[in-house]
Amino acid sequence: MDQTGTRGPFLSLPDEVVDVMRIRVECYSGYRGDESPRRIILGEKRVTVKEIIDRWAGPDYRYFKIEGDDGALYIVKHDEENDAWELVMFDTTFDRAEREC
């Protein structure tokens, strides 16, 4: 949390208002450990990562923008300090071909 009481670049609500969806993520372990997500596990649903569209990092976290094999778009956050994953955004209307035009 930063000095303004917000949680990162996507959420601007105080901690007590924000419900975080914790998820499990299976990763490819490269030289940095949990380097690249390969599968997102949301309860009973398993989504295989079709493509990592983008990634960016902060001092103690990493974000991944992912296209799932279900055609949806996901943004997941890895809190490296606590080794916890969160689902930040989910879009079932994602159409990559339409956005590339």
Describe the structure.
By secondary structure, the chain is mainly β. It has one domain. Helix content is 5%, strand content 55%. The protein is built from 1 helix and 6 strands, in the order ββββββα. The chain has a 6-stranded antiparallel β-barrel. The longest helix is centred in the C-terminal third of the chain and has 5 residues, at 96-100. The chain is globular and about 35 Å long. It starts with 20 loop residues before the first strand and ends with a helix. The relative contact order is 0.17. Residues 1-18 have low confidence and may be disordered.
Strand order of the largest sheet: 1-2-3-4-5-6
Beta-strand content bin: over 45%
Which geometry do the CA atoms define?
A: globular
Total domain units:
1
Mean pLDDT: 78
Write down the secondary-structure element order: EEEEEEH
Summarize the topology:
Blueprint: E1 21-30, E2 33-42, E3 45-57, E4 61-68, E5 73-79, E6 84-91, H1 96-100
Antiparallel strand pairs: 1-2, 1-6, 2-3, 3-4, 4-5, 5-6
List keywords for this structure.
1 helix, 6-stranded antiparallel beta barrel, disordered N terminus
Short description:
Helices cover 5% and strands 55% of the residues. The protein has 101 residues and is mostly beta strands.
